[in-house]
Amino acid sequence: MDIGGVLAAAEHGYMEISKIELHGVLPAVFASRGAAGSEVWCRDVVLERGRRYLVSAQSGTGKSSLCSYLYGYRSDYAGHILFGDTDISTLGVGKWCELRSRHIAYLPQEMRLFPELTAMENVELKNRLTGYRGVGDIKAMFDRLGIADKMGEPVARLSIGQQQRVAIIRALCQPFDFILLDEPVSHLDEANNRLAADLVADEAARQGAGIIATSVGNNVMLTIDKEYKL
Hints:
This protein has helices at 63-70, 93-102, 119-130, 135-144, 160-171, 190-207; strands at residues 19-27, 44-48, 52-56, 77-83, 86-87, 104-107, 178-182, 210-215, 226-229. It is an alpha/beta fold.
């Protein structure tokens, strides 16, 4: 079934993902050992647009794998993942490109910034693809996260915490129905955690989007609707 037939039409002119479902999903690497005690693996899980979820885990339990599956980077799992009524294993490259630019935003744990480019240039690379933000909007986000003075600095010269905030701004330079945040505040102190959480929460609320955050300890300071233990 084509994804266009199962994703509901949104008022803002593009199709939206109203829910993500996982049915019996288990990473292939866990096939021999199973996933006893997990509230996600080998379970039926429904994630709804507009709600906030925390997936808490210990290292090595598959939190980054989960994000990679939902973003279409990897498919080495058993079970089924659905966007609406569509099994994502049936989607081709073109549909994934559309989903990643209009529907699913992603902040990977390793951030994937270009160290030789400035903080602003890293963000502009994403924004040129989506055409979503004005320069003033981007500068306002830098200011809000306390790194306005770092916009012209090469990323290689920034601290890991500053890089994390740049990556958060970049992730918000697109429309989305869900945003995936893989350990988004692992290098942020409490004050900057709060600033980042408020920015993400405000943008998700403005778009009516869902938030799926993972953590092994330093949880993003969001009001969470439901927590799953991985």
